[in-house]
Protein: RpiR family transcriptional regulator
Amino acid sequence: MSKDIKKKLKSRWDSFTTAEQKIASHLLQNIDSIPFETAASLGKKVDVSPMTVGRFLRNLGYAGLAELKEELRGGAPWLQLYSSPGGAQAASPSEALQSEIRGLTAVHALTTTREWTAIVDLLVQADRVSVTSFHHGRFLGMGLASLLQHVKPRTSFADGLDGAYADVLLDSTEQSCVVLIDFRRYSRHFRLLAEEVAQRGIPLVIITDTPCYWARQLTDHVLMLPIDDHRAWHNFSAANSLFSLLIGAVSNEMGDRFERIGDTTQLRQKFVGYVEAPAAGERPPSKPTAKKAGGTTRKRRPSPKG
Structure:
């Protein structure tokens, strides 16, 4: 059944070559359409040869695509991004903690890669940085852009509400940088915008998850987070940790940015202001006393003893 192929692909993912990961990603995301595929059509969709598809399936233990189709016959698509957190397969607190640890470990491992160093250098050298994210991960891009603004001038979040992403595509240059963030299921805008940015020769950074097989076809600047099918939602804590480390690395490379942070704080104080803590020895303002209708003061009930 379909669960068998899922287990095979997931358990052996790290041993796959780049071409094999492309095939595996397509199978995971399009398992219900496999009965209508041929080795040639499947290879064309992931940009590999039919021979590579056949060899990959044989390595998984199938005689060919026909045998995989036979296994899938009569089964419903198994890949569901979200499952009910209260369902029978909900992760226990211990399992959830282990998932968090695996995600954070993977993030810190990324900081030792050449890709990480190249991306940090790109962000530091860029004359402007545009950040865009999509769907339920939209808040991640907004947070990254907001925090990166403290250390990197001319950083902005592009919401695409103009229907053209003009600020990204028309105002960026070969000295700029565009950061796109999305996780399964991917927004249509995610790939369309990535392709357009790459076509225009604008430096592109993609932050996504491991099944996004096409990301490396468009740019060498890719950071991929592992996914966990047992979680009801993506591991957003891992993504937030990645952004925190990325901002820290950019800040370190750019040198002392406290002057900019201080100037930003002063501007916020001028325009918005902050709630000041009471001075030493000063009593905080008392809470207003609740009143009954007609303006009489309502007496508080004595707290129960014992």
Residues 5 and 68 are 8 Å apart (CA to CA). The longest strand covers residues 204-209. Confidence is low (pLDDT under 50) at residues 74-88. The radius of gyration is 26 Å.
